[in-house]
Amino acid sequence: MNGNQELTYEQTKEELAYSLGFQACLWGRPLCEYMETIYPAMKNGGSHINSFHYFDKPKPSSIRFVRTPNNVTIDAYAAGDLREEPIVLVVPKQEDDRWSIVQIGDHFDNVAYNVGASKGQEPGVFVITGPDNKGLEFPAYMKQITVSTTFAVVALRVVLNGMADLEAARAVQRTVKLIPYSKYVAHGIHTEFEEPVNDPDYYEQFHFVPSVEAGLERYEYIGKGMKLFLSKNSDYNDPIVQQFHQIGLSVKEGFNPEGMDEPTKRGLIRANEAAEQLIRYAYTNMVEKADGWNYIYTDGKPNHSFALRASLATYVPGGNLAEEIIYGNTWVDSNDEQLHGKNRYVLRFEKDRLPQARIFWNLAMYAEDMLFVKNDFVDASGDPYGRCTIGSTTDGIKYDDDGSITILIQHERPEETANWLPAPDAIFNLTLRMYGPSADVLAGNYRLPAVEKVG
What we know:
By secondary structure, the protein is α+β, with helices and mostly antiparallel strands. It contains eleven helices and 22 strands. It has helices at residues 9-27, 29-43, 166-173, 181-187, 200-204, 217-229, 234-237, 239-244, 262-285, 306-315, 439-442; strands at 48-49, 53-54, 73-81, 87-91, 100-105, 111-116, 124-129, 142-146, 151-159, 177-180, 249-250, 254-255, 288-290, 293-296, 325-330, 345-349, 357-366, 389-391, 405-410, 420-422, 429-437, 452-453. Helix 2 (29-43) packs across helix 6 (217-229), helix 2 (29-43) packs parallel to helix 10 (306-315) and helix 9 packs across helix 10. The protein starts with 8 loop residues before the first helix and ends with a strand.
Protein backbone atom coordinates (compact mmCIF):
# COMPACT_ATOMS: atom_id res chain seq x y z
CA MET A 1 0.00 0.00 0.00
CA ASN A 2 1.23 3.50 -0.86
CA GLY A 3 2.42 5.26 2.28
CA ASN A 4 0.32 8.31 1.40
CA GLN A 5 -2.86 6.34 0.77
CA GLU A 6 -5.44 6.70 3.50
CA LEU A 7 -6.77 3.56 5.14
CA THR A 8 -10.40 2.69 4.74
CA TYR A 9 -12.53 2.26 7.84
CA GLU A 10 -12.30 -1.56 7.55
CA GLN A 11 -8.54 -1.42 7.04
CA THR A 12 -8.18 0.77 10.10
CA LYS A 13 -10.10 -1.74 12.20
CA GLU A 14 -7.99 -4.61 10.87
CA GLU A 15 -4.70 -2.83 11.56
CA LEU A 16 -5.79 -1.85 15.07
CA ALA A 17 -6.72 -5.47 15.80
CA TYR A 18 -3.40 -6.60 14.33
CA SER A 19 -1.45 -4.21 16.56
CA LEU A 20 -3.27 -5.20 19.75
CA GLY A 21 -3.38 -8.89 18.86
CA PHE A 22 0.36 -8.98 18.16
CA GLN A 23 1.09 -7.54 21.61
CA ALA A 24 -1.43 -9.86 23.27
CA CYS A 25 0.05 -13.00 21.67
CA LEU A 26 3.51 -12.11 22.98
CA TRP A 27 2.38 -10.81 26.38
CA GLY A 28 0.11 -13.78 27.09
CA ARG A 29 2.30 -16.56 25.75
CA PRO A 30 3.90 -17.39 29.15
CA LEU A 31 0.44 -17.89 30.66
CA CYS A 32 -0.30 -20.46 27.95
CA GLU A 33 3.04 -22.22 28.32
CA TYR A 34 2.67 -22.64 32.07
CA MET A 35 -0.89 -23.92 31.65
CA GLU A 36 0.18 -26.32 28.89
CA THR A 37 3.29 -27.76 30.51
CA ILE A 38 3.24 -27.48 34.30
CA TYR A 39 -0.26 -28.49 35.27
CA PRO A 40 -0.60 -31.58 33.05
CA ALA A 41 2.77 -32.68 34.46
CA MET A 42 1.45 -32.20 37.99
CA LYS A 43 -1.55 -34.33 37.22
CA ASN A 44 0.87 -37.07 36.14
CA GLY A 45 3.02 -36.79 39.27
CA GLY A 46 5.48 -34.09 38.21
CA SER A 47 4.69 -31.66 40.98
CA HIS A 48 2.21 -30.75 43.69
CA ILE A 49 -0.13 -27.92 44.55
CA ASN A 50 0.92 -25.99 47.69
CA SER A 51 3.51 -28.58 48.73
CA PHE A 52 6.69 -29.94 47.21
CA HIS A 53 6.89 -33.05 45.10
CA TYR A 54 10.38 -34.28 45.97
CA PHE A 55 12.37 -36.15 43.36
CA ASP A 56 14.56 -38.79 45.02
CA LYS A 57 16.98 -38.91 42.11
CA PRO A 58 18.58 -36.41 39.76
CA LYS A 59 17.61 -35.97 36.11
CA PRO A 60 13.80 -35.66 36.11
CA SER A 61 13.82 -35.65 32.31
CA SER A 62 10.56 -37.59 32.12
CA ILE A 63 8.76 -34.50 33.40
CA ARG A 64 7.94 -32.59 30.25
CA PHE A 65 8.09 -29.10 31.72
CA VAL A 66 11.72 -29.74 32.71
CA ARG A 67 13.56 -28.92 29.49
CA THR A 68 17.37 -29.03 29.45
CA PRO A 69 17.43 -30.98 32.76
CA ASN A 70 20.55 -31.44 34.86
CA ASN A 71 21.77 -34.30 37.03
CA VAL A 72 24.00 -32.37 39.42
CA THR A 73 21.08 -31.40 41.64
CA ILE A 74 18.09 -33.17 43.08
CA ASP A 75 14.96 -31.12 42.70
CA ALA A 76 11.50 -30.53 44.08
CA TYR A 77 8.69 -28.62 42.38
CA ALA A 78 5.42 -27.06 43.40
CA ALA A 79 2.77 -24.63 42.24
CA GLY A 80 1.26 -22.35 44.83
CA ASP A 81 -2.45 -21.63 44.47
CA LEU A 82 -2.63 -18.18 46.07
CA ARG A 83 -6.22 -17.38 45.18
CA GLU A 84 -7.60 -18.21 48.63
CA GLU A 85 -4.56 -17.78 50.87
CA PRO A 86 -0.75 -17.46 50.87
CA ILE A 87 1.65 -20.37 51.24
CA VAL A 88 4.52 -20.62 53.70
CA LEU A 89 8.05 -21.70 52.77
CA VAL A 90 10.17 -23.03 55.64
CA VAL A 91 13.94 -23.20 55.05
CA PRO A 92 15.89 -24.48 58.09
CA LYS A 93 19.59 -23.92 58.74
CA GLN A 94 21.74 -26.71 57.31
CA GLU A 95 24.70 -28.31 59.05
CA ASP A 96 26.93 -27.99 55.99
CA ASP A 97 27.40 -25.31 53.35
CA ARG A 98 25.82 -27.34 50.58
CA TRP A 99 24.64 -25.17 47.66
CA SER A 100 20.88 -24.98 47.33
CA ILE A 101 18.32 -22.59 45.94
CA VAL A 102 14.59 -22.08 46.25
CA GLN A 103 13.41 -20.19 43.16
CA ILE A 104 10.07 -18.41 43.46
CA GLY A 105 8.49 -17.07 40.29
CA ASP A 106 5.25 -16.02 38.65
CA HIS A 107 3.44 -17.25 35.52
CA PHE A 108 5.01 -14.57 33.36
CA ASP A 109 8.33 -16.41 33.88
CA ASN A 110 9.78 -13.75 36.17
CA VAL A 111 11.74 -14.69 39.28
CA ALA A 112 10.32 -12.87 42.30
CA TYR A 113 12.94 -14.08 44.79
CA ASN A 114 15.69 -16.64 45.29
CA VAL A 115 16.31 -18.12 48.71
CA GLY A 116 19.93 -19.14 49.26
CA ALA A 117 22.20 -19.84 46.25
CA SER A 118 24.96 -17.24 45.85
CA LYS A 119 23.85 -15.51 49.06
CA GLY A 120 24.73 -18.62 51.04
CA GLN A 121 22.40 -20.11 53.59
CA GLU A 122 19.24 -18.10 54.16
CA PRO A 123 17.28 -19.96 56.83
CA GLY A 124 13.91 -18.57 57.73
CA VAL A 125 10.16 -18.61 57.23
CA PHE A 126 8.89 -16.98 54.05
CA VAL A 127 5.27 -16.23 53.15
CA ILE A 128 4.43 -16.18 49.43
CA THR A 129 1.52 -13.94 48.49
CA GLY A 130 -0.33 -13.23 45.27
CA PRO A 131 -1.89 -10.04 43.90
CA ASP A 132 -5.15 -10.63 45.80
CA ASN A 133 -3.48 -11.33 49.17
CA LYS A 134 -2.64 -7.67 49.74
CA GLY A 135 -3.42 -6.07 53.08
CA LEU A 136 -2.73 -9.19 55.11
CA GLU A 137 -0.46 -8.84 58.11
CA PHE A 138 2.06 -11.50 59.04
CA PRO A 139 4.29 -12.18 62.05
CA ALA A 140 7.50 -10.17 62.07
CA TYR A 141 9.67 -13.27 61.67
CA MET A 142 8.14 -14.00 58.25
CA LYS A 143 9.63 -12.50 55.10
CA GLN A 144 6.91 -11.71 52.56
CA ILE A 145 7.48 -12.46 48.87
CA THR A 146 4.80 -11.28 46.46
CA VAL A 147 4.32 -12.62 42.93
CA SER A 148 2.31 -10.89 40.24
CA THR A 149 0.04 -13.83 39.38
CA THR A 150 -2.51 -15.78 41.42
CA PHE A 151 -0.32 -18.89 41.15
CA ALA A 152 3.38 -19.09 42.02
CA VAL A 153 5.97 -21.54 40.77
CA VAL A 154 8.45 -22.81 43.37
CA ALA A 155 11.52 -24.89 42.52
CA LEU A 156 13.98 -26.31 45.05
CA ARG A 157 17.41 -27.48 43.87
CA VAL A 158 20.05 -29.10 46.09
CA VAL A 159 23.53 -29.83 44.74
CA LEU A 160 24.55 -33.48 44.47
CA ASN A 161 28.27 -34.24 44.80
CA GLY A 162 28.21 -37.60 43.04
CA MET A 163 25.82 -40.50 43.57
CA ALA A 164 27.55 -41.46 46.83
CA ASP A 165 26.23 -38.15 48.19
CA LEU A 166 22.61 -38.89 47.29
CA GLU A 167 21.30 -39.76 50.76
CA ALA A 168 22.90 -36.69 52.34
CA ALA A 169 21.44 -34.46 49.61
CA ARG A 170 18.00 -36.03 50.09
CA ALA A 171 18.18 -35.31 53.81
CA VAL A 172 18.75 -31.62 53.10
CA GLN A 173 16.02 -31.57 50.44
CA ARG A 174 13.34 -32.98 52.75
CA THR A 175 13.86 -30.32 55.41
CA VAL A 176 12.51 -27.58 53.10
CA LYS A 177 8.70 -27.38 53.32
CA LEU A 178 5.79 -25.63 51.60
CA ILE A 179 2.60 -25.36 53.66
CA PRO A 180 -0.69 -23.46 53.11
CA TYR A 181 -0.81 -20.48 55.45
CA SER A 182 -3.85 -21.58 57.47
CA LYS A 183 -2.34 -25.03 58.02
CA TYR A 184 0.96 -23.51 59.12
CA VAL A 185 -0.78 -21.22 61.60
CA ALA A 186 -2.70 -24.17 63.03
CA HIS A 187 -0.03 -26.85 63.07
CA GLY A 188 3.35 -25.36 62.14
CA ILE A 189 5.80 -27.46 60.15
CA HIS A 190 4.16 -30.68 61.36
CA THR A 191 1.12 -30.07 59.19
CA GLU A 192 -0.61 -33.10 57.76
CA PHE A 193 -3.20 -32.33 55.11
CA GLU A 194 -4.80 -33.65 51.97
CA GLU A 195 -3.40 -32.17 48.75
CA PRO A 196 -5.61 -31.60 45.68
CA VAL A 197 -2.92 -33.20 43.51
CA ASN A 198 -4.91 -36.44 43.27
CA ASP A 199 -8.19 -34.72 42.48
CA PRO A 200 -8.80 -34.92 38.71
CA ASP A 201 -11.47 -32.24 38.92
CA TYR A 202 -8.94 -29.75 40.22
CA TYR A 203 -6.83 -30.08 37.09
CA GLU A 204 -9.76 -29.75 34.74
CA GLN A 205 -9.63 -25.99 35.24
CA PHE A 206 -6.29 -25.92 33.41
CA HIS A 207 -7.41 -28.11 30.51
CA PHE A 208 -7.88 -26.20 27.29
CA VAL A 209 -10.18 -27.25 24.47
CA PRO A 210 -10.62 -24.59 21.75
CA SER A 211 -14.17 -23.61 20.90
CA VAL A 212 -13.60 -20.63 18.60
CA GLU A 213 -13.06 -20.53 14.87
CA ALA A 214 -9.69 -21.47 13.39
CA GLY A 215 -7.02 -18.84 13.75
CA LEU A 216 -8.40 -17.38 16.98
CA GLU A 217 -7.51 -20.29 19.30
CA ARG A 218 -4.45 -18.56 20.73
CA TYR A 219 -6.57 -15.69 22.02
CA GLU A 220 -8.97 -18.09 23.68
CA TYR A 221 -6.00 -19.83 25.31
CA ILE A 222 -4.62 -16.50 26.55
CA GLY A 223 -8.06 -15.57 27.85
CA LYS A 224 -8.25 -18.77 29.86
CA GLY A 225 -4.82 -18.02 31.33
CA MET A 226 -5.94 -14.51 32.23
CA LYS A 227 -8.99 -15.84 34.10
CA LEU A 228 -6.86 -18.33 36.02
CA PHE A 229 -3.69 -16.44 36.78
CA LEU A 230 -4.52 -12.72 36.96
CA SER A 231 -6.23 -10.72 39.64
CA LYS A 232 -9.75 -9.66 38.68
CA ASN A 233 -8.65 -6.13 39.57
CA SER A 234 -6.39 -6.22 36.50
CA ASP A 235 -9.40 -5.35 34.35
CA TYR A 236 -9.51 -1.99 36.10
CA ASN A 237 -5.96 -1.16 37.20
CA ASP A 238 -3.66 -2.74 34.61
CA PRO A 239 -3.32 -0.59 31.46
CA ILE A 240 -1.95 -3.52 29.48
CA VAL A 241 -4.99 -5.65 30.24
CA GLN A 242 -7.34 -2.74 29.67
CA GLN A 243 -6.15 -2.13 26.12
CA PHE A 244 -6.84 -5.80 25.25
CA HIS A 245 -10.51 -5.28 26.07
CA GLN A 246 -10.74 -3.82 22.57
CA ILE A 247 -10.09 -7.27 21.07
CA GLY A 248 -12.36 -9.23 23.41
CA LEU A 249 -9.79 -10.20 26.08
CA SER A 250 -10.47 -9.63 29.77
CA VAL A 251 -9.83 -11.31 33.10
CA LYS A 252 -13.54 -11.52 33.80
CA GLU A 253 -14.60 -13.28 30.59
CA GLY A 254 -11.38 -14.56 29.04
CA PHE A 255 -11.78 -14.25 25.28
CA ASN A 256 -15.20 -13.26 24.00
CA PRO A 257 -15.36 -12.90 20.19
CA GLU A 258 -19.13 -12.52 20.17
CA GLY A 259 -20.12 -9.80 17.73
CA MET A 260 -16.56 -9.40 16.43
CA ASP A 261 -16.50 -8.17 12.83
CA GLU A 262 -14.49 -9.71 10.01
CA PRO A 263 -11.79 -6.99 9.77
CA THR A 264 -10.98 -7.46 13.45
CA LYS A 265 -10.80 -11.23 13.04
CA ARG A 266 -8.49 -10.88 10.04
CA GLY A 267 -6.19 -8.60 12.03
CA LEU A 268 -6.05 -11.01 14.97
CA ILE A 269 -5.33 -14.03 12.79
CA ARG A 270 -2.49 -12.18 11.02
CA ALA A 271 -1.12 -11.04 14.38
CA ASN A 272 -0.98 -14.57 15.80
CA GLU A 273 0.95 -15.83 12.76
CA ALA A 274 3.42 -12.94 12.98
CA ALA A 275 3.87 -13.39 16.75
CA GLU A 276 4.76 -17.07 16.29
CA GLN A 277 7.52 -16.08 13.89
CA LEU A 278 8.86 -13.43 16.25
CA ILE A 279 8.93 -15.85 19.19
CA ARG A 280 11.13 -18.21 17.18
CA TYR A 281 13.30 -15.32 16.00
CA ALA A 282 13.67 -13.90 19.52
CA TYR A 283 15.01 -17.15 20.94
CA THR A 284 17.62 -17.63 18.25
CA ASN A 285 18.64 -14.01 17.77
CA MET A 286 18.05 -12.09 21.00
CA VAL A 287 20.97 -13.79 22.70
CA GLU A 288 24.66 -12.95 22.86
CA LYS A 289 26.77 -15.15 20.61
CA ALA A 290 30.47 -15.96 20.64
CA ASP A 291 32.45 -18.92 19.23
CA GLY A 292 29.24 -20.84 18.54
CA TRP A 293 27.85 -20.43 22.07
CA ASN A 294 24.61 -18.61 22.85
CA TYR A 295 24.37 -16.82 26.19
CA ILE A 296 21.16 -15.74 27.86
CA TYR A 297 21.60 -13.01 30.46
CA THR A 298 17.93 -12.18 30.87
CA ASP A 299 16.54 -15.45 32.22
CA GLY A 300 14.33 -14.89 35.21
CA LYS A 301 13.73 -11.18 34.55
CA PRO A 302 12.48 -10.54 31.01
CA ASN A 303 10.04 -8.04 32.57
CA HIS A 304 8.24 -5.99 29.90
CA SER A 305 10.09 -7.31 26.87
CA PHE A 306 7.09 -9.24 25.62
CA ALA A 307 8.96 -10.97 22.78
CA LEU A 308 11.84 -12.06 25.00
CA ARG A 309 9.76 -13.45 27.80
CA ALA A 310 7.48 -15.20 25.31
CA SER A 311 10.45 -16.95 23.72
CA LEU A 312 12.07 -17.86 27.05
CA ALA A 313 8.81 -19.24 28.43
CA THR A 314 8.36 -21.28 25.24
CA TYR A 315 11.84 -22.77 24.98
CA VAL A 316 13.48 -22.55 28.44
CA PRO A 317 10.74 -21.97 31.05
CA GLY A 318 11.76 -21.43 34.64
CA GLY A 319 15.24 -20.03 33.93
CA ASN A 320 17.11 -18.46 36.80
CA LEU A 321 18.73 -15.08 37.25
CA ALA A 322 22.09 -14.59 35.57
CA GLU A 323 23.83 -13.79 38.84
CA GLU A 324 22.93 -17.30 40.03
CA ILE A 325 23.46 -19.38 36.89
CA ILE A 326 24.69 -18.49 33.40
CA TYR A 327 23.80 -20.89 30.59
CA GLY A 328 25.84 -21.26 27.43
CA ASN A 329 24.28 -23.39 24.70
CA THR A 330 25.69 -24.50 21.36
CA TRP A 331 24.56 -26.64 18.43
CA VAL A 332 27.66 -26.04 16.29
CA ASP A 333 31.41 -26.53 16.20
CA SER A 334 34.14 -23.96 15.49
CA ASN A 335 33.31 -24.17 11.75
CA ASP A 336 29.66 -23.36 12.47
CA GLU A 337 28.65 -26.89 11.47
CA GLN A 338 25.92 -28.86 13.26
CA LEU A 339 27.18 -31.09 16.10
CA HIS A 340 26.63 -34.76 15.22
CA GLY A 341 27.74 -38.03 16.78
CA LYS A 342 29.29 -39.22 13.52
CA ASN A 343 32.15 -36.83 14.30
CA ARG A 344 34.63 -36.55 17.19
CA TYR A 345 35.06 -33.28 19.09
CA VAL A 346 37.09 -31.79 21.93
CA LEU A 347 36.31 -28.89 24.22
CA ARG A 348 39.56 -27.65 25.72
CA PHE A 349 39.88 -25.15 28.57
CA GLU A 350 43.27 -23.61 29.16
CA LYS A 351 44.43 -23.34 32.75
CA ASP A 352 43.60 -19.65 32.99
CA ARG A 353 40.35 -20.00 31.02
CA LEU A 354 38.49 -22.67 32.97
CA PRO A 355 34.76 -21.98 33.36
CA GLN A 356 34.59 -19.11 35.82
CA ALA A 357 32.07 -20.39 38.33
CA ARG A 358 32.41 -19.67 42.04
CA ILE A 359 30.31 -22.72 42.98
CA PHE A 360 30.73 -25.32 40.20
CA TRP A 361 30.30 -25.81 36.46
CA ASN A 362 28.72 -28.56 34.42
CA LEU A 363 28.51 -29.48 30.70
CA ALA A 364 25.35 -31.34 29.63
CA MET A 365 24.55 -33.29 26.45
CA TYR A 366 21.05 -33.01 24.92
CA ALA A 367 19.23 -34.54 21.98
CA GLU A 368 17.08 -32.46 19.62
CA ASP A 369 14.15 -32.62 22.07
CA MET A 370 16.34 -30.84 24.69
CA LEU A 371 16.29 -33.90 26.97
CA PHE A 372 19.23 -36.04 28.01
CA VAL A 373 20.83 -38.40 25.52
CA LYS A 374 20.55 -42.01 26.66
CA ASN A 375 23.74 -44.03 27.05
CA ASP A 376 24.94 -46.98 29.12
CA PHE A 377 28.31 -45.58 30.21
CA VAL A 378 28.52 -45.70 34.02
CA ASP A 379 31.20 -43.29 35.23
CA ALA A 380 33.29 -43.29 38.40
CA SER A 381 30.39 -41.95 40.48
CA GLY A 382 28.32 -45.02 39.69
CA ASP A 383 25.52 -42.90 38.24
CA PRO A 384 23.02 -45.50 36.98
CA TYR A 385 21.67 -43.10 34.35
CA GLY A 386 24.86 -43.15 32.33
CA ARG A 387 27.01 -40.08 31.93
CA CYS A 388 24.87 -37.27 30.54
CA THR A 389 26.97 -34.46 31.99
CA ILE A 390 30.53 -33.76 33.02
CA GLY A 391 32.07 -30.96 35.04
CA SER A 392 33.92 -29.76 38.09
CA THR A 393 31.97 -32.10 40.41
CA THR A 394 32.44 -35.22 38.23
CA ASP A 395 34.29 -37.97 40.08
CA GLY A 396 37.58 -38.92 38.41
CA ILE A 397 37.78 -36.07 35.89
CA LYS A 398 41.43 -35.48 34.87
CA TYR A 399 43.36 -32.27 34.30
CA ASP A 400 46.34 -32.05 31.99
CA ASP A 401 49.83 -31.52 33.40
CA ASP A 402 49.66 -27.79 32.66
CA GLY A 403 46.37 -27.42 34.56
CA SER A 404 44.14 -27.33 31.48
CA ILE A 405 41.30 -29.76 30.85
CA THR A 406 40.18 -31.44 27.63
CA ILE A 407 36.72 -32.98 27.31
CA LEU A 408 36.19 -35.66 24.65
CA ILE A 409 32.80 -35.49 22.94
CA GLN A 410 32.09 -38.46 20.68
CA HIS A 411 29.85 -41.47 20.15
CA GLU A 412 32.48 -44.21 20.19
CA ARG A 413 34.00 -45.09 23.55
CA PRO A 414 37.62 -43.85 23.77
CA GLU A 415 40.41 -45.75 25.53
CA GLU A 416 40.49 -43.18 28.31
CA THR A 417 37.00 -42.41 29.57
CA ALA A 418 37.64 -40.07 32.52
CA ASN A 419 36.88 -36.97 30.43
CA TRP A 420 34.47 -38.54 27.93
CA LEU A 421 31.00 -37.10 27.36
CA PRO A 422 29.15 -39.73 25.29
CA ALA A 423 27.35 -38.39 22.22
CA PRO A 424 24.48 -40.04 20.33
CA ASP A 425 24.84 -41.19 16.74
CA ALA A 426 22.67 -38.23 15.80
CA ILE A 427 22.34 -34.46 16.10
CA PHE A 428 22.99 -33.11 19.59
CA ASN A 429 23.59 -29.86 21.45
CA LEU A 430 25.49 -28.83 24.57
CA THR A 431 24.72 -26.58 27.51
CA LEU A 432 27.38 -25.45 29.95
CA ARG A 433 26.11 -24.05 33.24
CA MET A 434 28.23 -21.84 35.48
CA TYR A 435 26.78 -21.78 38.99
CA GLY A 436 27.75 -18.58 40.75
CA PRO A 437 29.31 -16.99 37.63
CA SER A 438 32.18 -14.58 38.12
CA ALA A 439 31.95 -10.84 37.49
CA ASP A 440 33.83 -11.35 34.19
CA VAL A 441 31.19 -13.83 33.03
CA LEU A 442 28.36 -11.48 33.94
CA ALA A 443 30.10 -8.59 32.18
CA GLY A 444 30.62 -10.67 29.02
CA ASN A 445 34.42 -10.58 29.36
CA TYR A 446 34.74 -14.36 29.69
CA ARG A 447 33.67 -16.61 26.84
CA LEU A 448 33.68 -20.38 26.44
CA PRO A 449 36.04 -21.83 23.82
CA ALA A 450 34.60 -23.23 20.61
CA VAL A 451 33.93 -26.96 20.25
CA GLU A 452 36.63 -28.28 17.91
CA LYS A 453 36.04 -31.10 15.42
CA VAL A 454 38.98 -33.55 15.47
CA GLY A 455 37.71 -36.43 13.38
